[in-house]
Amino acid sequence: MRTRTLLALAGAATALTVAAAVPSSATGGAVLTTGGAGGTAAAVGDTLTAPLAAGTSATLYSSATGTSGVSCRTSQFTATVADNPAAPGTATESVTGHSFDAGGCTSNVTGVLGVSSIVIDNLPYTATVASAGVLTVSPPGGSTIQTTVKLRTLLGTITCVYRAESLTGTADNGDSSINFTNQRFTRYSGSSLCFANGYFTAKYAPVTDAGAPVYVN
User: Fold this and answer.
1) pTM to 2 decimal places
2) Based on CB atoms within 10 Å of each CB, which residue in 61, 67, 149, 211 is the most buried?
C-alpha cells in the first residue's frame, strides 16, 4: 500500500494522542489510560495507533467553508508515548507516522485528474495532550509541519508543498477519538493549480494501545 500523509495531510497532523472531549476529572491516575477513564496507565514507549473513524474521510479543502480540494478515505496515525504524568497534567507523544492509502484519495480541483501521493515531511513531530482534551502537534525546533502533495494533471504531475506552524485538535473519550477541524496550511511552493491555502479536517478513532482504546484523564 502506498502511503502518504495528509498535510499532516500533513501530518496530520500528523499527533496521535488520545481521547477526550469531555475528559475525566479523576486525579491520581495517569493522563493517558486504557480500560476506561482512570484505568491502567499507558506506559512510556507504548505505540498508539488510530485509523480514520469509520465512514469518514480526511479532507484538505481550499477554504474553511468549501468542498474543493483533496479527500482521502484511508489514513492512520502512529505515535509513541514519551511522557505520561499523573492527571491532571499533559502527556507527550512522538508522532512517527501519518499515512494515507494512495488508492483512497480523490481530488475535485479543476484541471486535476487525481492524487499521486501525499507525504508528511520533517517527522517525527511532538504531540501534547492535556487533561482538558486539547491536543497540540508541533514540528521539531527550527522546522515546520510540512506536507508534499503530488497531483496528476493533463500536463503531467505537479508538486504542491504546504506548511503549518502547528496543529490543534481535541480528544473525545466517548469514542477514543482525535478531531482536527479546518487546520490551516499555507502553500509554500507549487503551480497555480495548487490552492493557496489548505484546510485540514479529520477524525481518527479509535486511538488504541495494543488494541485497547485510550482515554484522557
Assistant:
1) 0.88
2) 149
E strands, the chain, in order: 32-34, 40-41, 47-51, 58-61, 69-72, 75-83, 90-100, 105-107, 112-121, 125-130, 134-138, 145-153, 156-164, 167-172, 177-189, 197-204, 208-209, 212-216
- pLDDT, one tens digit per residue, over 148-197 is 999 999 989 999 999 999 999 999 999 999 999 999 999 999 998 899 99
- Are the C-beta atoms of residues 20 and 79 closer than 8 Å to each other? no
Q: How many other CB atoms are found less than 10 A from the CB of residue 141?
A: 6
Asked if 92 and 126 count as a contact pair (C-beta separation under 8 A), the reply is: yes
* Residues of the chain scoring pLDDT < 50: 1-22, 25-26
